[in-house]
Amino acid sequence: MPLFKPRRPLPETSPLPPPDQTDQQQTQQQKQQTQQQKQQTQQQKSQPKQQQNGRSNGQQNTKKTAALPPPQAGEVTKPKLVFHCQQAHGSPTGIISGFTNVKELYQKIADCYGIPAADILFCTLNTHKVDMTHLLGGQIGLDDFIFAHRKGVAKEVEIVKTEDALGLTITDNGAGYAFIKRIKEGSVIDKLKLVVEVGDHIERIDGTSLVGRRHFEVAKLLKEIPRGASFVMRLVQPLKAGFANIGPRSDPRSGSKKGLGSGKQTLRFKANGQAQVEDVDDHATVAIEKINSLLENFLGINDNDLAAQIWDLGQGKQNTMEFAEAVDDSDLESFGFNDDFIFELWGAITDAKSGRLKRV
């Protein structure tokens, strides 16, 4: 009997790899697992970012869309308002824009021609002549042609006030120059028409400078001169040249283009210093003309801006009392309009609204 039992045979197994090869496989598996974990982590992190980016892109697109909306059918962008001008005594045509009141307009014209703005007495629309029916006032048609009248010869005339009224209608250019707009036929001034003319700037009365004065201040000063007194009035007439019978040269390329001043919209200068494009209101036009005629009789002045302000005050008012209260609460209160004159103004406003006033 053998002292030792025979050794039981071992089960067949795959041969073990060498120690180095086993370590390498384990290391590779760990690396793969680590990479997979990193990829999963990155994917989890990237999903919120993609959603956030999607929202951000959406917001950016929304902002862009809000800032630059797609053009709609019939929508027209506002063009830059550009006006043509000349010096009334003759000059090349200039182009001006970017003004919101009369003073800025004069400055633009002065810059265009390299002259002082103080050299411009007044402007007319669509005519180079001293025609007070075409005087530039509180509004300009979008296709109006502007003519600037510059200072010319200064002259002095001694006047004896033989009547209570001199027969002058005075207006101003909105920039400090009062000038003669109309001379009543048969009046004291009409007898001096060879010297005193429509369009003359009233620069001085005796030793008092009137530069910078409003038209109603000048009219009041002349009215306060006692009857029978004499005074010296210094005038500056518009610059004249040999262009009396020459109009603006037409553009041969224009073809059948509409004539000057045929537009239906105007650039209106507001009292707050702003300018606004408005449609022409026929009722307002005839009302302003009538109100101006009343102002001539009451104050001896002609002022489209003042007349337009009175017309605006009458909007929305139901009767004379409401209109009178609106006048008293405005800066027009300083003019001292009496009740009869307020009633006449209200009559002009209501007649214009109802269509009873016709343009002359």
From TrEMBL:
CDD domains recorded: GH2_GIPC (cd21180), PDZ_GIPC (cd06707)
Region Disordered: start-end pairs: 1-75
Gene3D superfamilies xref list: 2.30.42.10
Transmembrane portions of the chain: none
Chain ranges of the PDZ domain: 156-237
Residue ranges with Low complexity bias: 21-61
PANTHER family recorded: GH21964P, RGS-GAIP INTERACTING PROTEIN GIPC
Family: Belongs to the GIPC family.
Protein name per its UniProtKB record: PDZ domain-containing protein GIPC1-like
Record gene name: LOC108680147
